[in-house]
Amino acid sequence: MTETLDTIVTDMIYEHERYGEVLVVGIGQMYDEYHLDKTSDESATPDPHSTIVYFYKQFDGYGGMSPTPLTEPVTEFAAESSVGRLHTDGKQNFYNNRTRM
């Protein structure tokens, strides 16, 4: 891609090299294990490579159209995607309000 993403935002449509237009619905962490008995902040720090993006390649005005979203590590998603546009589903949200000012 010609442009590098510096931020990935949910409820946005991005142009992905492999999938075409995709709707990002979430960003999350994957853990191999999580120690509940430790109180240290270090035990709760995830590996930065374990951050994943949840997205749909088939979507409509209401959201994703398949039972489960696709996932991809955030670094791979950013490398294969370019900035897109806001997914508008008729609901007022922070991004809709911000762009209308």
Short characterization:
With 101 residues, the chain is mainly β. It has helices at residues 74-80, 94-99, and strands at residues 12-16, 20-29, 51-56, 59-60, 63-64, 70-73, 81-86.
List the helices and strands and how they pair.
Blueprint: E1 12-16, E2 20-29, E3 51-56, E4 59-60, E5 63-64, E6 70-73, H1 74-80, E7 81-86, H2 94-99
Keywords:
about 15% helix; mainly beta; disordered C terminus; about 100 residues; single chain; two-stranded antiparallel sheet; 5-stranded antiparallel beta sheet
Would you kindly provide a written description of the structure presented here, covering whatever features stand out?
This protein is 13% helix and 35% strand. The protein has 101 residues and is mainly beta.
- Spatial order of the strands in the main sheet? 6-3-2-1-7
**What is the ordering of alpha helices and beta strands?**
EEEEEEHEH
Provide the low-confidence segments as ranges: 89-101
What is the chains' assembly state? single chain
The separation of the N and C termini measures 31 Å
> Can you tell me the number of structural domains?
1
**Radius of gyration computed on alpha carbons:** 16 Å
Q: Summarize the amount of helix as a percent range.
A: 10-25%
Counting helices, strands and paired strands, the structural category is: mainly beta
Outline type? globular
Give a count of the beta strands, DSSP E runs of length 2 or more. Answer: 7
Total DSSP helices: 2
| Largest sheet data | 5 strands, antiparallel
Strand content: 25-35%
Mean pLDDT: 76
